[in-house]
Amino acid sequence: MPTIEILRSPLKLHGKVGVPGSKSITNRALLVAALATGKSSLSGVLVSDDTRYMVKALTELGVCIRFSSDTCIDIEGTGTLKQPCDSLYLGNAGTAIRFLTAACALVKGTVVLNGDEHMQKRPIHPLIDALNAAGIHATVPSSGCPPCQVHGQGSILGGTISVSGNLSSQFLSSLMLVAPLAKQSTTIKLAEDTIGALGYIEITRSVMNAFGAHVYQDDEKRFHIANTGYNTCDFKVEPDASAATYFWAAETLTGGMIDLGYSPSDFSQPDVAAHTLMQSFPSLPSCIDGAQLQDAIPTLAVLAAFGYSKVRFTGIANLRVKECDRIAAVHKGLNCIKPGLATIEGDDLIVIGDPELPTQARPCTIDTMSDHRIAMSFALAGLKCRGIKILDPKCVDKTFPNYWSELSKLGVSFSYA
Ligand SMILES: O=C(O)C1=C[C@@H](OP(=O)(O)O)[C@@H](O)[C@H](O)C1
Ligand SMILES: C=C(OP(=O)(O)O)C(=O)O
Question: Is there a catalytic annotation at residue 116?
Answer without folding.
Answer: no
